[in-house]
Amino acid sequence: MKIPPNQMEVRAICNSKFIGFQLIGPAADAAEKKRNERRNRFAPRSVSLVPIPARRHPLHAAITYLHDASEKIEVLQARAVEYFRPPSVGVRFVDDADGVHQNMLLVVEKQLPAEFNRLTTEALQYLRSALDTSVSKLIKHLKIQHKRADFPIFLFRTDSTGIPKRTGYLGAPNGGKLAAKLPAELGLVLESVQPFKSGNLRWKHPLATLSALNNFAKHNDIIELRALASESALMILSAPTVLRGGIHIRAGAPLKDGELLARMDKHMKVKPQIVLSCVFRRGCPRLEREDVLPALREMLGNANDILVRLKQAFDK
After folding, report:
1. pTM of the model as a whole
2. Is 148:174 a contact under the CB 8 Å cutoff?
């Protein structure tokens, strides 16, 4: 199927094997719109944290954990601004041994601090603790007998056959059975915030993402650097052309000084302006290669909304 040129977006791509162009057609554009739809649906417009209540309130500890998570995210934000302010990577060109080509090599001034991974992991842990503690403290305060008191996170309401079982929310001990023991309004809150309520977007729901990332972070580093040349002036035989689409520089993690990014003709001159960002590393469930800070703020806003609703339901 041929796509009319006016329906395609042209991007410049640069990696260790070639430098060329990528044509983005309607299918890729639709996928991008779908990702934006998910972001627009889940991401809060602004996060105004619920105030920490008095110590005697059953949600005091949970909301305190929420504020701890927010502090970790703010510290990560400040450290990232400090790290990325001076150029920490660049490129240099050396002639190839064949005398015909030149190699574009990566220049690394400083690596991503280990503190970034620690702060991200701690923020995730505090968010999960805030939700788990909210349920356990409410159960204890209401004197409800229940063995498991984790915050329920379920992708499906029932199993695949439609019969409630342990794999689905309704049949799970910490799902519908737990909600049934709580006052009606509290139980309704637990069910209404579940990922399965989001239909096809359940896999990218902030609660599903939080649960998956916490499990992954127990045994893995979860962030890495992404290098992106936001705009570049490309000159071939003295004919300048400005590339607006950006050049994606695919380098290893951690970034290696002297790594070969591209091999090109000596007459080709590329002056990339490198932009770095922290992203979830390859292999991370749900959020692979997505920016860390926006995703953390999305999960923070979602957890905050849940605690606000639980507090309102309890205080009635």
Report:
1. 0.74
2. yes
